[in-house]
């Protein structure tokens, strides 16, 4: 967060937060630029947002969703490493978060990098309840999606499907088909791997997922973030 990223009180963009607190806490730590995807949980929604930088006191997020200054957020940087805080400014699809308690940002980033190198690391997933259609060579089957990430999804289906089959998946709210592979299947439960990752913007808000799942987005700025969050490395470790 550069200093000019923080709106001032005179412009009316932080009506309930003392801007002096933001500057005082900013001066106490070094911001490290990263491009990492995190799962952000709020009172009524979950989504995958982009972390642009992080410090011991807070971080900056990017997502095209409506936020409220003062809103509490839980931010999962991985399935085992999470932080909590509140939004202190919001402008142009970005927002700043101050943590409830100071962290060691450098140590956190190193721990995340270590996790990504470990065997069995899995990208962050979002819980979801949505109907979709799985199309195979011999017909189609309705399925219920139970979780989803950029890389794949978990599902429940009454039909017994075999792992290894290549399928087309019609996501809720859209006519576009997405090619996937049945990665595993046990009874009615199974897991899909997308041959082309979903754009993060489709997963910024589970509440609006059905409205944007079928929309194809071009020129997204998260290619580096996706690579970082799936094991291709982190920047800004200092």
Description of the molecule:
With 238 residues, this protein is mainly beta. The chain folds into two domains: 3-117, predicted glycosyltransferase like domains (Thrombin, subunit H, Beta Barrel); 126-232, Beta Barrel (Thrombin, subunit H). The protein contains four helices and twelve strands, in the order αββββββαββββββαα. The strands form two sheets. It has a six-stranded antiparallel β-barrel. A six-stranded antiparallel barrel has the order 7-8-9-12-11-10. The two termini are 16 Å apart.
Supply database-style keywords.
238 residues, mainly beta, Thrombin, subunit H, 2 domains, six-stranded antiparallel beta barrel, 4 helices, disordered N terminus
């Amino acid at each position: 967060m550069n200093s000019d990223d923080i709106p001032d009180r005179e412009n009316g963009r932080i009506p309930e937060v003392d801007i002096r607190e933001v500057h005082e806490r900013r001066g106490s730590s070094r911001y490290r630029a990263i491009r990492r995807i995190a799962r952000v949980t709020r009172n009524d929604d979950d989504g995958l947002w982009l972390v642009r930088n992080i410090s011991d006191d807070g971080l900056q997020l990017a997502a095209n969703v409506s936020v409220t200054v003062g809103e509490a957020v839980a931010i999962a940087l991985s399935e085992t490493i999470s932080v909590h805080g509140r939004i202190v400014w919001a402008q142009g699809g970005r927002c700043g978060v101050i943590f409830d308690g100071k962290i060691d940002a450098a140590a956190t980033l190193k721990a995340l990098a270590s996790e990504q190198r470990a065997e069995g690391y899995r990208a962050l997933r979002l819980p979801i309840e949505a109907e979709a259609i799985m199309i195979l060579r011999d017909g189609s089957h309705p399925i219920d999606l139970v979780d989803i990430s950029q890389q794949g999804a978990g599902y429940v289906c009454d039909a017994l499907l075999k792992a290894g089959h290549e399928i087309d998946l019609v996501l809720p709210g859209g006519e576009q088909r997405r090619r996937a592979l049945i990665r595993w299947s046990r009874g009615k439960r199974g897991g899909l791997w997308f041959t082309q990752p979903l754009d993060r913007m489709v997963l910024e808000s589970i509440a609006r997922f059905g409205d944007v799942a079928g929309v194809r987005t071009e020129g997204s700025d998260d290619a580096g973030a996706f690579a970082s969050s799936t094991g291709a490395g982190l920047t800004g470790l200092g």
